[in-house]
Amino acid sequence: MELSKTEIDKRMRSFENMCRKLGVKRTHQRMEIFREVAQTVEHPDAEKVYRKVSERIPTMSLDTVYRTLWLLKDLGLVTTLGSPRERTRFDANLDHHHHFVCVKCGMTRDFYSDDFDSLELPDTLLSIGEAVKTQVEVKGLCRKCAAGEMPGEKKKEATL
Amino acid sequence: MELSKTEIDKRMRSFENMCRKLGVKRTHQRMEIFREVAQTVEHPDAEKVYRKVSERIPTMSLDTVYRTLWLLKDLGLVTTLGSPRERTRFDANLDHHHHFVCVKCGMTRDFYSDDFDSLELPDTLLSIGEAVKTQVEVKGLCRKCAAGEMPGEKKKEATL
DNA sequence: GATCATATTGAGAATAATTCTTATTTAATA
DNA sequence: TATTAAATAAGAATTATTCTCAATATGATC
């Protein structure tokens, strides 16, 4: 949404290179599905990607969207997020970041924090396991919901 | 699992008080379902709670487990966690804490960190929304998985 | 302690997200 | 351009969770 063309292009090239390197076919469907995730900051779910891409490729099937998105995840080009009972959401931002999630409408946005990134993990974790990735999730109310408006999608119950 | 009897008792009393206060019936089923979640650090899912409680109450239905767990959540006595495509997991630890999740077997444990708790949120968040709760999720490998053993449950694909 | 009104339960059917199956099509390569 | 393995579309299948409704149990009252 507020992504620069250069960033989107960079992501598209990264995808094409990865396909060539691994012998994965660059089909029309895959390109458009990846583009859809790569060009937004909204962390869309498969259904949403399907609706958008269907406008351009009317024969698109939802299953292909799912298979492609999981493929992209295997390739390391997207990550997944979301809670149980929700649709899986996809994120093409590969920089280390954190998430803000609105407990009312589900809006999710990335944010960055050097402070969070540089924190040491507590020693108690050593007895539990080896950390690989640390991510902060901030739950709260997005500006629209806080202002009392009722944005498009809503959730059955807030997951705080 | 490594929970003190006093802590478990405290949780049970908290549950009973909440029921009285809100006019919620304290049925045999509810008591045992809550006890099951309250006495473990494992964050079980509904299915697991169902299996354990069924040993004591063989006529228990899975639906009652679900309904009770969501009720407990409404009462503020448990929180939920987990990822999409997974069963919802339940947590009776009401102290502010963070989670370690094993990406291989799904093992989840609470941990505490004053450092994390005292961190300021970045200003960029102000334009996104109002924070209510901040929780850190550390993904990695639990000791067993890191050691190459293959614990009971495993996941289809690691969610990093 | 018995009675009553209502909340709760159990069983099985219903939903929703996601995945599988299979016949058909297509990208990459010879 | 022909070949072939990989990818797609469509619809059936799966899995976690929820709904429906008749039967039962709780808590309040007598």
Helix content of chain A: 25-40%
Q: What portion of the residues of chain A fall into strands of 2 or more residues?
A: 15-25%
Shape of chain A: globular
N-to-C SSE series of chain A? HHHHEEEEHEH
Secondary structure elements and pairings:
2 copies of one chain form a homodimer.
Chain A: H1 5-22, H2 28-38, H3 46-56, H4 62-74, E1 79-81, E2 89-91, E3 98-102, E4 108-111, H5 114-117, E5 129-142, H6 143-146
Parallel strand pairs in A: 3-5
Antiparallel strand pairs in A: 1-2, 3-4
The structure holds a DNA duplex (30 and 30 nucleotides).
In short:
The first copy, chain A, has 160 residues and is an alpha+beta fold. Helix content of chain A is 38%, strand content 18%.
